[in-house]
Structure formats: C-alpha cells, structure tokens
C-alpha cells in the first residue's frame, strides 16, 4: 500500500487498528466541526435587518461536550495502554540478541555468538528480545514495520521485543538525534523463514556462543574466585540468580534482571547482597560493552540444572514480608 | 459619508509622536513603545528561524544529503527550533500584543512595573545577542532540546553560548509574566471586575502563571548543562554516575507547559476576534476563563508524555498518558465555544476573522493529533518521527502564528493609526492557509510511514511527500512576506484609522488610534459586561466608518 | 450605547491621597500609594515563587542522587565542616532579625537606626560569604572541587568499625556528584546573597539620604522578604548538605 508502512510483526496489526480507529474518530470530529463552522459562517452572515442574538452560554452543553469527548479520550487511552503493556512485557523464552549502539552504527551479537553490524537477521514466527545499551549518547532503535521504538541509553540496558510475522527486509532507523551521522545510522532487519535462518546461523562458522565467551571472561576477570557455585565463596552464588528476587543489606528486595547484573559489575557498591561484605571491586572502565554483554549472558545461563546441586547460598533470598 | 475627511492626525499627541530620537525609544517606560521594540526584535528572529526552515526544506527535496553537510543540517534544525521557540513564539504575543493592550484593556495607565518591562526587553536583546553570536560563531547542533549526554559530552559546537542565550531570554519571559500578573491583580480600573475582563486578559493571566512558575526550572537545568560542559561534571552523564533521564524530566517539566505559553495568548486573540466579527458576546464566558486556567494547571502535570520510549517505567507512562487526556478536554471545550459563539451571530469576513477561522480549524487538527501522541501504543510508533513535527507545527504555526497574524491585523489600526489594505490581507490569509496545509499535512503521512525527524538524508520512498511539503513551504513564505510588505506600506499610505474601526467591545477601542501615552485622560469606570455587542450593534461597513479626528 | 468613561470616584482615602500627590515616591501610573505598595508586594512574592522553582530544580536533582548514592553522599557530606555550617546558619538567622528590625525602624521613622540595622545586615551577610569562601578554599585544597583535579579517597560512613582490610570506600564518581550539587546549590545561594548585599548597600545609602519613612518604606520591606527567602533556602541546604548520615 502506498503511503503506509510494511506490517511485519504482531504489534503492527494492533497499532494500525488503533490508528485507523483514531483517524476515523478524528475525521468525524473534524468534519463535524468544519461543517458546523462553514454552515454557521454562511447561515449567520451579516444580513440587513438581522441582528446577532446574544447568548450567555449553557452549562448543560459545557458539561456534555466535556464529558463525551473525555469518554472517547479514555477509550484512546485504554486501548493504547493495552498495546503498550504488551510491548513492554517481553515473553519469557524469547530469543535474545544483545545490541550495542554507538555513533553511528548498530552492533548485534546473537546468543550463538554470531555478530552483525547494521543488519539483524531474525527468524519469522518467533519471539525475539533485544537487550540494548549505548556506548556514547542516547540512540533509539526504531523499526517502522514492527511499529516499535525504544531509546537506547548509555549506562543501562533497555529492551525491545517483537514477534515477526512476515519474511522480508525492513528499515531500521536510529530515532533519537545523536550527532553528525544520525540519519546515516540506519540498517535492515532481515526476517527469514526458519530454515533459512538456521542455514544463516550455521553458515557464519566458528562462532562461539555468547555465554561461552562470558564463561571465559568470568575466569579471566577473576569473578570465579569469589562467585563459586557452592556456599564457600566470598561472593553470592550466581547459579539461578537471574530474574529472581535478591535481598539486599539495606532491607530492600530487588529483581536480579539484566540491569542488576550489569550494575553489579560496574558499580558493585550500589546494591550489597545481605550477608556479604562490600568487597567486590568495580570493573568500570576496564570492560567493554561487548564483554559486559557476554558476562551477563553467561550469568543468565547458569540455571539450577547446570549447577547439578540445589543451591542454598545466601543471596538467593526470598522476599521479606 | 467618509469623503470629507477631517484629519489632523499628526498633530494630536499620541505615544508615537510623544518624543523623537533614539533615547526616547531606548529608555522608554511606555508599555506601548516597549511592545513595538519587541515587535521589531521578534520579527527579526522569526525571519532568522524562517530562513533556516527554508534551507531545511530545500535540503529535503532530495533523499540524499546533497545541499549542505550533515553537521550544517543539524545546526539548521537546531537553530530553527531555538530561534522560533525561545525568541519568537514564547515572547511573541505576550510581549507585543499583551504589552500593548493589557493596560488599556483593564483601564490602566501602564503595567505595574514599567521599568521592569523595559528591563525585560533588554534581557531579551542580550539573550538574542548570545543567540546571534552562536549562529555567527558556527552554530549549535544539539537540537533545541539539548539532550544529554550529547549536549554535555559529545557536541563540538557552541552549546554554552546558546544555553546562555536561552537562559537570559528566559528571565525576560519570567519578568513579563510577573508584570502581567501584578498588573491584572492590582491595576484594574474601578468596575473592571474579574468577570468583566476580556478573555485576552484571562489568557495572558494563565500564560503568565506558567511563565513565572515553569521557566525557572528550565533555567536551572540549562545552568547545570552549561556547568557540566564547562567543568566536566557528571550530573547528567552516565559514565560519571549521572542520569540522562533526569535532564529530560527537568527539561520537559518546563518545555511542556511552554507550549501552553505559546498557544494560550493566541486563544485569547481568537476570542476577541470571533466575538467582534460575529457581533456577539462569547458563548460560555466562565467556561472559557476556567478552560485557560485549567490548561495552565493541568499542563504542568503531563511532561513525561515526551518520554514514553525514553526508558521511564511502565507505570509512569500509564499515568502521564492518562493525564494527557485530561488536558485535552479544556482545549476541546474552547473550540466548541468559539463555534457556538458564531451561532445566531452576524458574521463578516474581514482578515482577522479569516485568521480566526483558520486558527479554529488548524488548532482542531493539531489538537486531535495530540490525542494520537497521547495514546501509548501509537506514540511508540510515531514519536520522534515527522508525525510529531507535523503535530507541533499545526498547533504552533497553524495555531499560534495564525492567531498572531489575526491579532496584528485586528489591532493594527489601534497600534499605528492606519488601516492595512483589506484585499491584500485576505489574499495573504488565504495563501498562508494553503501553504501551511500543503507544507505540514504530508508530514503526518511521512511520520506514520516511519520517517524519523532530524534526518538529513532519507530513503527514496519518502521523497514525493517531502517535495509536496517543500512546495507548501515556499507558498507559506510568500504568505508571510506579504503582510511585511503591506503593513510597512500602510504606515505611510494606509487609510487613517478611527478610534474604533470595527465597532468592537473593549476599552482599547475607546481610546484614540494610536493611543496617547497615558492611555486615558481620565480613569474609566466600567459599568458594562465584557463583549457588550448588544449595546454596540453592527460592524461598520466601509461607508459607515466614523471619520477620524 | 454605553456610558462614556467617568472620572475617578473619590474614595475614603481621598484626603490622604491629596497628600499622596506630594509624595515623590508615588509613581504616575498608580492611582494611590496603597495600590503601589500592594503591587510591589505582590511582585516580590511572585518573584520569590519563581525562585522556589529555580532552586527546586537543583533540590530535585540532589534528592534523586541522594537516594541513589546513599552511602557515597553520606561520606562526602562528612567532608564538610559542620561547625562552620552551623555558625553560618546562626549568622543568617541573625541577619534576618536585623532585617526585621530595619523594617521596624523604617516604620517608626528612625533614620539612623534603619541605616544601622541595614549595615549590620550587610556585615552579617559578608560574614556568611567570608566563611563560605573559607569552606570553598578548603575544598579546593583537598581536591574536592569537581572537574579535572577532583580526587576522593574516603570511607563510607560507619566503616571505621570494620578491620582495615574490610573497609569499603566511597565511589569517587558519586562523591563528585555530591560536590557538583554542593557547589551548584551553595554557589547559587551565595550569588543570591551577593545580590542581596548589593541591594541592602543601595538601600542603606538611600535610607541615609532620608528616602524612607513611615509613609514609604516598601523597598526595605520587599528587600527584607527577598533576604528572608535566601535565609530559608539556606535553612534547607544546611541539613541536606551537612547533616546527613551524621548519626553513624
């Protein structure tokens, strides 16, 4: 359709439906108001002998044309909120891709270790979640065909998930002004049939899964000396910690999400797990965003079954009442 | 018959001829002269900003970035935004028409603080000079929104001087607002109760509240940005523990209410014009006054609707989206009330009324598209695209600038003592309307298609709509140039204007055109309601225009 | 047609208004002295309202980071000299008292007392600024001024009770954040005090020339309002900057 973007995700249809609804309602409102204005302009034009009739107002009318539009607005709000809620809650088992934005390019690293620049290959019909951060200024990851956009911030992760519905190649734009080559920070999302996608993944050859890279870094940076998978470590056991509640020294309970793991590496003093001493050094400035992503991926991959034992280490924490 | 014109206009003392020479203007305390000083200054910045806009639209004729370099383009849209917002739209109507008319409308001799008024203008000029310096010294390319850490750490352009210019001009805005609030509270003539105030005054009262309470927040934010940039602080820099979202919250806390600073005065103008050219009192006076106050108050509660995809929490987004729909209601009510005012009126279509019609139509579209942006699901797709650009140009240009032009035409005879040429006025209004819609309507479509804003180059499928938009811009430019020419022409050759050429209600029409320096020989005592068109009767036809004395 | 504008009706204060026309302080665009005084008052209150918003932005930033970097801010705060801060608080409160006494003197027509109290206010204000300058100098020497030469190596509050090997240090970046806000807040406050001192100097001169008396002392009153506001800002700054985490 000319003048209409491609629709290639589950969200696209929902957003378009709401948009068309709003366009129709707005068009009706506009036509009504314009028609009334034009009608009044003609019917009540100045004519000899006809005087203007002074009318104070009408409280009933004021209330009516406040309440009815507000009810319509609430419909806009609720419908939009429902879509937004879905957009902001990624499904549990989505395929994850780490994204690092920098002036002026997009860098992707798949869990399989595959790396891409400015082009992202994804399978159709599967949930995909991007875990994104920026190396410098604020960028924004925007795929019009999916109708989704998310700012990419330095210093933390933001996420963006989608479920592609149609194979094809779709625009990727940076949508937050980021300097000289802002309009050059563009690329493509390549949605592939599952078989083609598998072929592409293995075709890359010799890529080490991200979590394996992370495991190597975990040793290389010395994390393993304190974060052992038993109760003897000077740091909390990280097996199974991802997305579970963690009880902190100061009594708060937080969720060990991607940002928590990232922050723990860069600013360990920010949140101390109850029962542990604040002795972890910071790695700020010594570690790249890509290495961080690998470490986070590794920690996330540490599930109960892998550890081979039921962990009872402190820090697994149940939420305090 | 108006043929026997007995005019000895030049000899009657009025504010224009009461003292000649640069000093009498640069050291004036007369609110009317200060209004004209502002008129010259903001018109200058309008054409500076407009010039940048033309270059932007020329570049966007082709998908490739081939007219100017990327850095230059980024400076163009940044300085277009800064000039237009901080040095034209925000001061605009309050500093020109507000300054000129408010004292007269309430029956006072001047504003409460005339010297502060002059200081405001000088602050505006100093801020403007910083802006001009910034432009000449190579420009600034952060976007008018100064987002961090781009503006504090990475931009290589004149951020600090631009920030200082905005900061200083901001104080001009605060002082003007302060002056208006005190004036409206304390300087009303006997009998001029709150319920008898023209809606133009109510609108400026609401605007002034926003100016006084909102502007300081962006002022301190800009100071922090400048300090951060100069001394490498980390308040907004994640690498040093700062939070870029804190900047956004502080910035938008002002910059959202700022849009109401820009539109409310225009709404006041439209109320005056619609009543006069329908020969009717406003429909729902109380509702209209409450509506402007409601917009001002609720307008302070919705700022994070600029940040739905910025990384705020889901719950914050829900709250701000809901609140955004609250602020839409009073604006809608105003549109309905203006329309209802025309019902059973006696309507004529002089230029000011054409602009008022234009405002109501274009503000309706602009406001409706704001509803789209307030809806979270839609906003995620269209924020930071041309949809937003189209929305805010509809309300700011289709709304505010159109209202401003309408007001200038309506009060031109009062300000200058001359009539503008009516046929040219109508022609220019039509050209502005056509040019405006052709420029900005295609941008809604571009936005939904996914064209991001602030893009120097774009994919080829967006070209045809961009060409339409640029064509519209050139037509719009003609529409803006015409009044420049015929307004200037009218100063010498325009018909001499009587005190009340429109037979309009309002104290400003009871004083001569142009008014004497002290506005009133004797303080008026008001015993009539606002918009007493039942007493005034019809608008004069050309033959009936009272002879000027 | 409506009635044409009538002349100003005489009100109850008409008699005193005649004298008012002799009052050189009455500006031409005001009808009465009362109107002028009310306008000036309202203007000053509005100005103070916008000052609240102005400082409010910085307080907002401070509160956000105070909660985010709780311990580090506590550590940095303990680098300030609480005695000097307390002395300054007392100095400012006294100067608010002298301002009130100045207004009283003006009300009672006591010219020399008015000048005296104004001068004393200035002296107290300068004392505050002097102590502040001393504090800033100390910060400069310890390299606690944010920017290129910033360096910070101090313990978090309460760490002394642990054995040396286990003690945790504050994050220098976050401490620098504290000091950035410290200097921004106190610097902006000091700037307002300097303006206040300048204002009072001007007023003291005018008072000495006999410009103020029972019939007209609005500038003294309004400058007093401004000074009280600057005092109140400090009364918020002192606990927020100097007194956090002192109990540990």
Give a quick set of tags describing it.
heterotrimer; B: 549 residues; mainly alpha; Cytochrome C Oxidase, Chain A; 17 helices; globular; disordered N terminus; C: 248 residues; Four Helix Bundle (Hemerythrin (Met), subunit A); 69% helix; elongated
Describe the model.
- The complex is a heterotrimer of chains A (321), B (549) and C (248).
- Chain A is an alpha+beta fold.
- Chain A folds into two domains: 1-38 and 90-207, Sandwich (Immunoglobulin-like); 210-307, Cytochrome c-like domain (Cytochrome Bc1 Complex, Chain D, domain 2), CATH 1.10.760.10.
- Chain A has helices spanning 10-43, 59-88, 194-203, 210-220, 223-226, 258-266, 289-301, 304-307, and strands spanning 95-102, 105-110, 115-117, 119-123, 127-134, 139-143, 148-152, 158-163, 168-174, 187-192, 245-247, 253-255.
- Chain A is elongated and about 100 Å long.
- Chain B has 549 residues and is an all-alpha fold.
- Chain B has a single domain (26-544), classed as Up-down Bundle (Cytochrome C Oxidase, Chain A).
- In chain B, helix 7 (159-186) packs antiparallel against helix 8 (199-231).
- Residues 1-8 of chain B have low confidence and may be disordered.
- Chain C has 248 residues and is mostly helical.
- Chain C has one domain: Cytochrome c oxidase, subunit III, four-helix bundle (Four Helix Bundle (Hemerythrin (Met), subunit A), Up-down Bundle), CATH 1.20.120.
- In chain C, helix 2 packs antiparallel against helix 6.
- Chain C is elongated and about 80 Å long.
- Chains A and B meet through helix 1, helix 2, strand 7 and strand 9 of A and helix 3, helix 6, helix 9, helix 10 and helix 11 of B.
CATH level-1 class of chain C:
Mainly Alpha
- Terminal Cα span of chain A: 56 Å
CATH top level assignment of the largest domain in chain A: Mainly Beta
Largest interface: A-B, 82 and 92 residues
- State the domain count of chain A: 2
CATH homologous superfamily of the largest domain in chain A - what is it? Cupredoxins -  blue copper proteins
**Fraction of residues in β-strands of chain A:** 15-25%
Contiguous helical run count of chain A: 8
For this structure, the CATH topology of chain C is Four Helix Bundle (Hemerythrin (Met), subunit A)
């Amino acid at each position: 359709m000319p003048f209409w973007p491609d629709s290639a995700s589950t969200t696209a249809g929902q957003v378009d439906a709401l948009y068309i609804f709003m366009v129709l309602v707005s068009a009706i409102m506009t036509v009504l108001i314009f028609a009334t204005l034009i009608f009044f302009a003609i019917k009540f034009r100045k004519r000899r002998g006809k005087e203007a009739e002074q009318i104070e107002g009408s409280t009933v009318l004021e209330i009516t044309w406040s309440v009815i539009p507000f009810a319509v607005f609430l419909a806009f709000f609720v419908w939009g909120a429902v879509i937004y809620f879905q957009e902001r809650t990624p499904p549990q088992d989505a395929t994850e891709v780490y994204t690092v934005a920098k002036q002026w390019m997009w860098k992707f690293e798949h869990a399989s270790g595959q790396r891409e620049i400015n082009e992202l290959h994804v399978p159709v019909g599967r949930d995909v979640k991007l875990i994104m951060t920026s190396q410098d200024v604020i960028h924004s990851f925007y795929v019009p065909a999916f109708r989704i956009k998310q700012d990419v911030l330095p210093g933390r992760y933001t996420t963006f998930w989608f479920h592609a519905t149609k194979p094809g190649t779709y625009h990727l734009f940076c949508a937050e002004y980021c300097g000289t080559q802002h309009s050059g920070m563009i690329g493509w999302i390549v949605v592939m049939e599952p078989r083609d996608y598998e072929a592409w993944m293995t075709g890359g050859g010799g890529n080490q899964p991200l979590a394996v890279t992370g495991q190597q870094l975990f040793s290389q940076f010395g994390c393993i000396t304190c974060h052992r998978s038993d109760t003897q470590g000077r740091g909390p056991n990280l097996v199974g910690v991802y997305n579970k509640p963690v009880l902190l020294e100061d009594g708060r309970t937080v969720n060990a999400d991607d940002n928590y793991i990232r922050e723990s590496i860069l600013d360990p003093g920010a949140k101390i797990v109850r029962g542990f001493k604040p002795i972890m050094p910071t790695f700020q400035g010594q570690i790249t965003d890509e290495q961080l992503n690998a470490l986070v991926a590794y920690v996330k991959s540490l599930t109960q079954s892998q550890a081979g034992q039921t962990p009872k280490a402190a820090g697994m924490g149940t939420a305090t009442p | 018959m108006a043929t026997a014109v007995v005019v000895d206009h030049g000899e009657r003392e009025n504010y224009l001829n009461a003292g000649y020479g640069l000093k009498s203007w640069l050291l004036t305390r007369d609110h009317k002269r200060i209004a004209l000083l502002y008129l010259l200054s903001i018109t200058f910045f309008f054409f500076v900003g407009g010039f940048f806009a033309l270059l932007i639209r020329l570049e966007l004729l082709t998908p490739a970035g081939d007219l100017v370099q990327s850095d230059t383009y980024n400076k163009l849209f940044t300085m277009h935004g800064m000039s237009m917002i901080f040095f034209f739209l925000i001061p605009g109507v309050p500093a020109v028409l507000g300054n000129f008319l408010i004292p007269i409308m309430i029956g006072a001799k001047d504003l409460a603080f005339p010297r502060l008024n002059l200081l405001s203008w000088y602050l505006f000029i100093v801020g403007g000079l910083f802006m001009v310096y910034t432009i000449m010294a190579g420009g600034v390319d952060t976007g008018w929104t100064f987002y961090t850490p781009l503006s504090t750490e990475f931009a290589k352009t004149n951020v600090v001087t631009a920030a200082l210019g905005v900061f200083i001009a901001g104080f001009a805005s605060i002082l003007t607002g302060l002056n208006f609030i005190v004036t409206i509270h304390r300087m009303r003539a006997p009998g001029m109760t709150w319920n008898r105030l023209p809606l133009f005054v109510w609108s400026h009262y609401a605007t002034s509240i926003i100016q006084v309470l909102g502007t300081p927040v962006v002022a301190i934010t800009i100071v922090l940005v400048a300090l951060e940039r100069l001394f490498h602080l980390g308040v907004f820099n994640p690498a040093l523990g700062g939070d870029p979202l804190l900047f956004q919250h502080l910035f938008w806390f002002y910059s959202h209410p700022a849009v109401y600073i820009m539109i409310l005065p225009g709404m006041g103008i439209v109320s005056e014009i619609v009543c006069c050219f329908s020969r009717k009192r406003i429909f729902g006076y109380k509702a209209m006054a409450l509506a402007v106050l409601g917009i001002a108050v609720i307008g302070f509660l919705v700022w994070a609707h600029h940040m739905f995809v910025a990384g705020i929490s889901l719950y914050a987004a829900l709250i701000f989206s809901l609140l955004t729909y609250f602020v839409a209601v009073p604006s809608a009510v105003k549109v309905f009330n203006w329309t209802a005012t025309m019902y059973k009126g006696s309507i004529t279509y002089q230029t000011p009324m054409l602009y008022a019609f234009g405002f109501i139509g274009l503000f309706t579209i602009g406001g409706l598209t704001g509803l789209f942006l307030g809806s979270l699901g839609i906003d995620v797709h269209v924020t930071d695209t041309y949809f937003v650009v189209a929305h805010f140009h509809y309300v700011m240009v289709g709304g505010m600038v159109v209202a401003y032009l309408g007001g200038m035409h309506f009060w031109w005879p009062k300000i200058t003592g001359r009539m503008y040429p009516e046929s040219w006025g109508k022609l220019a209004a039509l050209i502005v309307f056509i040019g405006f819609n052709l420029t900005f309507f295609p941008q809604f479509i571009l936005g939904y298609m996914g064209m991001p804003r602030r893009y120097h180059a774009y994919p080829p499928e967006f070209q045809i709509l961009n060409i339409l938009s640029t064509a519209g811009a050139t037509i719009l430019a003609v529409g803006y140039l015409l009044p420049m020419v015929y307004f200037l022409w009218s100063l010498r050759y325009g018909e001499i204007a009587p005190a009340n050429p429109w037979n309009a209600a309002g104290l400003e029409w009871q004083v001569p055109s142009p008014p004497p320096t002290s506005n009133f020989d004797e303080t008026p005592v008001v015993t009539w309601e606002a918009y007493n068109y039942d007493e005034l009767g019809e608008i004069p036809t050309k033959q009936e225009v009272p002879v000027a004395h | 047609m409506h009635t044409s504008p009538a002349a100003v009706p005489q009100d109850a204060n008409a008699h005193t208004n005649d004298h008012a026309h002799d009052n050189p302080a009455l500006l031409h665009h005001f009808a009465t002295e009362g109107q002028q005084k009310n306008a000036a008052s309202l203007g000053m209150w509005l100005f103070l309202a916008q000052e609240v918003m102005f400082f409010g932005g910085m307080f907002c930033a401070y509160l956000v980071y105070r909660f985010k970097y709780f311990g580090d801010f506590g550590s940095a705060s303990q680098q300030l000299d609480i005695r000097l801060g307390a002395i300054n608080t007392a100095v400012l409160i006294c100067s608010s008292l002298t301002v009130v006494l100045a207004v009283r003197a003006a009300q009672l027509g006591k010219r020399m007392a008015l000048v005296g109290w104004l001068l004393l206010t200035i002296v107290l204000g300068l004392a505050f600024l002097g102590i502040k300058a001393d504090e800033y100098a100390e910060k400069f020497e310890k390299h606690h001024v944010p920017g290129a030469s910033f360096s910070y190596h101090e313990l978090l509050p309460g760490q002394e009770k642990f054995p040396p090997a286990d003690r945790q240090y504050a994050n220098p970046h976050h401490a620098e954040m504290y000091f950035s806000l410290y200097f921004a807040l106190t610097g902006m406050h000091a700037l307002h005090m300097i303006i206040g001192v300048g204002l009072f100097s001007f007023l003291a001169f005018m008072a000495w020339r006999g410009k103020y008396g029972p019939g007209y002392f609005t500038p003294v009153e309004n400058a007093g309002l401004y000074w009280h506001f600057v005092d109140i800002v400090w009364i918020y700054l002192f606990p927020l900057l100097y007194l956090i985490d002192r109990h540990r």
